[in-house]
Amino acid sequence: MRSICILGSTGSIGENTLDVITRHPHLYRVSALTANTQIEKLARQCHQFEPDIAVVKDAQGAHQLQKLIVHLKTEVLYGAQGLIAATMHPPVDTVMAAIVGAAGLLPTLEAAKAGKRVLLANKEALVMAGPIFMDEVALSGAELLPIDSEHNAIYQCLPHSLATSIGSSSASGVEELLLTASGGPFLHRSIDTLDLVTPDEACAHPNWLMGRKISVDSATMMNKGLELIEAMWLFNMPENKIQIVIHPQSVIHSLVRYVDGSLLAQLGEPDMRTPIAYGLGWPHRIDSGVKKLDMMTLKDLNFMAADVKRYPAILLAREAARTKGTAPAILNAANEVAVESFLQQRIKYTQIIRIVDQVLQEVTAQKATSLELVLEADQQARARAQIVIKGLTA
Ligand code: NAD
Ligand code: MG
Fold first, then answer.
1. How close is the Cα of 155 to the center of ligand 2, in Å?
2. CATH number, span 2-146
3. Residue 300 burial (CB < 10 Å; 0-12/13-18/19+)?
4. Coil, strand or helix: which one is 57?
5. Ligand nearest to the CA of residue 214, numbered in listed order
6. Of the N and C termini of the chain, which has fewer Cβ atoms inside 10 Å?
C-alpha cells in the first residue's frame, strides 16, 4: 500500500488525483493533504480521506479548518513549514506535487531530497531550478515521474532505463522531442482583437479543464514555453532538439523521434487522470476512470507550426532556455505576476507577454549555482514586474 501526500489537493490536479485514488482503496492511503485558501473544500476532503496531516496557508485558516474537522485525528498545520512537514511525514512514500506556481518549488524539492517518489505536476519547480532539482533527484535516488501530459507522453515513449538521461546517451537513438499544444482558445481569433480578451475567455480552454493560471498560460502558449524548459531538464535535451507542434484536437499528447525514422506517440482522451494513474501505478498500469479513446470517431488530426506573432511567449521561453542560469526563473516569475494582474483585470491580455519581455531585458540573469540565487532572481523579477505594471496602469 502506498502512502500519498498531495500538495495542492484542492486544485484541478489534486482533485483528479483523489479521483484516481478513490478507485483503488486497497493500493493507496492518503496521508497528507494541502490547500491554500479553500478551507471548506479541504475539510470535505479530510472527512472523506482522514489524512494524518492537513495544511493550509496561515494560522487563521488552520483555526478555521480545525473547527470544521474537530472529530478527526488529522493534525492541522500551516505555511511553508507545514507543507514541508506534510512532504516529510514518515509514512509518505509518494508526493504529488500539484501546487501551482513558484510556491511549489520548496516542498517539491524537499520531496526529491528525501528520495520519495515525486509525481511532478508543478512544472515551475523544474523551470526555476532544473539543474538543482535534477541533481537532488540523482543524489537521493528519488523516483521522478512527470505528470504534465506532454512529459508523461514522452516518458512513456522512451526506454525506461534512459528516460531521464537520453540527451547524454547516444545509445538512446533519440533525435528530438515533439511537444504538442492545442493552441488554446485563441488559435483562430484575429490577432488585432486579442487586446479585448477577458479572463473568462482566456480560461475557456477548448480541450482541458485546468486551474486559471495554467489556462491563461495555455492561451498565450507560455505554458508550452515553460514545458519546453521542463522537458530540457527532465530529459537532458538541448532546447534546439525540442519542437513545438500545434495539434488542436489534443489527442496525441507528445512524441519522440528516433534516428531510424520512428516517431513514437502517446494518444488518449485529454484527461489528466491518465498521466496521474501512470505515476501512481508505475511501473504497473491501473484503471484511471478515463473514457477509452475511440479511434473510429477520430476524423481529423491536424498539425501546424506555432505562429510566433500570435504566440510571442515561445520566443521568450526559447531565449530563456538558451540563456539558462536564472533566466527561466525570471521568465516564470514575471509571467506569474503578469498573469495574476490580467486575472484581476488590471492589465490587458496582450500586455502579459510584453511585461515578461521587459522584465527579461531589465533583470540580468546570473549563473544559478544555488537555490538562494534562484529565489533571489524570482523576487527581483516579481518586484520588477510590479513596477512595470504600475507604470502601465497609472
Ligand atoms: P489549481 O489552481 O487548480 O490548483 C492549485 C493548487 O495549489 C490548489 O490546491 C491551491 O490551494 C494550491 N496553492 C495555490 N497557491 C498556493 C500557495 N501559495 N501555497 C500553497 N498552495 C497553493 O492548479 P492546477 O491546474 O491543478 O495546476 C497545478 C500544477 O500542475 C501547476 O503547476 C500546473 O502548471 C500543473 N499542471 C496542471 C495541469 C492541469 O490539467 N490542471 C496539467 C499539467 C500541469
Ligand atoms: Mg502540459
1. 13
2. 3.40.50.720
3. exposed
4. coil
5. 1
6. C
Residue 338's nearest CA partner among 290, 276, 384 is: 384
d(CA 390, CA 295): 51
Give the pLDDT confidence of 258-279 residue by residue, as tens digits.
999 999 999 999 999 999 999 9
Mutation choice for ligand 1 from 58, 83, 87, 210, CB with most ligand atoms inside 8 A: 210
Is 155 or 165 the better-scoring residue by pLDDT? 155
Residues 16-38: what's their mean pLDDT?
98
At residue 165, the pLDDT reads 53
**Where do the structural domains in the chain lie, given as residue ranges?**
2-146, 149-312, 325-394
Mean pLDDT value of segment 306-326: 97
What is the identity of the amino acid at 176?
E
3-state SS, residue 238:
coil
Q: Is the dihedral of CA 227, 231, 237, 243 positive or negative?
A: negative
Closest atom of ligand 1 relative to the 208 alpha carbon: 40
Cβ contacts of 156-164, under 8 Å, gap ≥ 24: 156/266, 156/278, 157/254, 157/255, 157/256, 157/264, 157/265, 157/266, 158/235, 158/256, 160/283, 163/235, 164/134, 164/137, 164/234, 164/235, 164/236
The correct CATH number of 325-394 out of 1.10.3720.10, 3.30.420.40, 3.40.50.740, 1.10.1740.10 is 1.10.1740.10
Helix-strand-coil percent breakdown of the chain, rounded to 5? 50, 15, 35
